[in-house]
Amino acid sequence: MFLEKINRFRRSLAFRLTILYVGIFTILIFAAFYVFYQAMISRINARTDNEMEVEMKECSLILAAKGTEALNGHIEEEVKSSGIDDRFFRLLTMGGEEILSSDPGSWKELGVNRSVLKKLTKSSPEFETIKLSKLKYQVRVIYGVVDSGKVLQIGHSLVDDEHVFQDLRVLFRTLIPVFLFLASFGGWFMAKRSLASVEQITQTAIAIADGAIEKRVPTTGRGDEVDRLSGVFNNMLERIQSLIVEMKEVTDNIAHDLRSPITRIRGLAEVTLLSEKNMEEYQSMAESTVEECDRLLWMINMMLEISETEAGVSTLSLSEVSLSDLIEEACDLYLPLAEERDIQIKTSISTQYHLSGDKGKLQRVLANLLDNAIKYTMPGGKIIVSSQKVDKTVMLSVHDTGIGISPDETSRIFERFYRADKSRSVPGAGLGLSLVQAIVRSHGGEIKVSSAPGAGSTFTVFLPLAKIL
Q1: What does each C-alpha distance from 127 to 115, 156, 385 come to in angstroms?
Q2: pTM
Q3: Kind and range of the H or E element at 281?
Q4: Is 342 left (phi over 0), alpha (psi -120 to 50) or beta?
Q5: What SS3 state is found at 6?
Q6: Could you say which DSSP state residue 381 is in?
Q7: Dihedral over Cα of 375, 377, 381, 387: its sign
Q8: How far apart, in whole angstroms, are the C-alpha atoms of residue 298 and residue 295?
Q9: Of 75, 181, 272, 339, which has the highest C-beta tally within 10 A?
Q10: For the chain, which domains are there?
Q11: H or E segment to which residue 236 belongs
Q12: For 409-449, how does the pLDDT look when each residue is reduced to its tens digit (9 = 90+)?
C-alpha cells in the first residue's frame, strides 16, 4: 500500500511540475553563479593588474629620478612589507639580462619570457599568469619598460584573490542546498495551487459519474487557462444536462404521440375481429393499419433525422446553392396547393445570392416553412417569400397573413412535438419546425420568428453568405 502511494505520488502531475521547476531553477542558479563568479574574477584580476601597473609606474619614477640603488632599496622595502612569497621584482635589459632582483625565495622557477619582451612597448605593459611549483597558488607577472633600455618584471602572488574565490565557492556550496529546498517547497506549492482547479474538475467529474449531474466546478474569475477550462467544463455539463432533459421530454412526447396511432391500430384490429368477418372489413382494417404504420415510421424517421442533425452526425453535402433558384423552385412546387386554398404566393428577390450548403436540406427548410404558412393562412390570404443581405449573412424571410401565434407560444414552437393551441385542429406532429431549426444551425445559421394572433407570422432564416453575383 505504501509503495503504491509512493508510485502514485511520483506519477502525479504536481510532482512532475515540481521536478521541472526545481530543474529549471537549478540550471538558472548555476548559470547565475557562473556569470557572477566570472565577473568577480574579471573584476579582481583587473584590480590586481591596476595595482601592478601603479607599482610599475612608481618604480619607473624612482629609477628615473634616483637611479638603480634607490630602486633596489624600494624593492627590498616592498618585499619586506608584503612578504617574500607574495612579491618579486627583477630589473632586466631589453635583451633579458638581469640587472638586479629581489630575494627569489620561492620565485626561483620564474624565468624571463623573451617572447613577451619582444612585444613590449613603452606605453603598453604585458601580463601573464603562471603556476610555480613552490607556490600554492598562481602568480600574476607584469613586464614593463621603466627606463630607456630597461625592463621591470614584477611577480604578484594571487593567494589573496584565491581566498576570495574560495570563499565564494564555499558560500555557493552552502547556499545551494537552501535554495534547492526553497525551490522544491515553492515549486510544490505553486504546482498544487495551479492544479487545485484541475482537482476540483476531477472531483466534479467523479460526482457526476456517481449521478450528481447538477454539480458544477467553482470558478475563480481570474481568467487563466484553468479557469477557462472550468468554464468550458461547466458549459459542457449544462449542455449535457440540457440534452438529458430534452431526451426525457422527447421520450415522453414520443410515448404520448405514438400511443394514439398504436391505440387506433389496436382498436381497428379489435373491432374487426369482434365484428362479422368479411373481406371488405379486413381490407379496410389493413388499409388503416398501413396508414397508421406509415405515420409512425414518418415520425420515427423525422425524430432520427432531427437528432442526427443536431448532434452533427448527419453529413452535409456542401455545394454552391443559388438562393433565388431555391425560392423559385419551392414556390413553384407549392403554388398549386396555395391556389387550391385561394392563397397568393409572392416573391421579393432583389439580388441573386449564393450559399455554401446542402441543397436538399435547404429545400426542406423552405418547404417546411411554406407548408406551415399555407396550413395556417385563411383563404384569400397571401404569403411573401423574400431575401436580402444583412452584414455577412443572407436573410430568407417567409411571411404569411395567417392565424398567428401568441407570445407565450412563440418561444416553444421549435420544440419537438409542440403544437400551439390554434394549430391542433390541423394535421401534423409538431416536428417540422424542429427539423428546420436543426438544419439551419447545422449550416451555421439562425432562425427567428415574429408573430401576433390574427396578424400572421414571419419566419426569418439567417445563413452565412458565400458570395454575391
Answers
A1: 12, 11, 97
A2: 0.47
A3: helix 279-311
A4: left
A5: helix
A6: -
A7: negative
A8: 5
A9: 75
A10: 2-163 (3.40.1840.10), 225-311 (1.10.287.130), 318-468 (3.30.565.10)
A11: helix 225-274
A12: 777 777 766 655 454 445 555 677 888 888 888 888 888 88
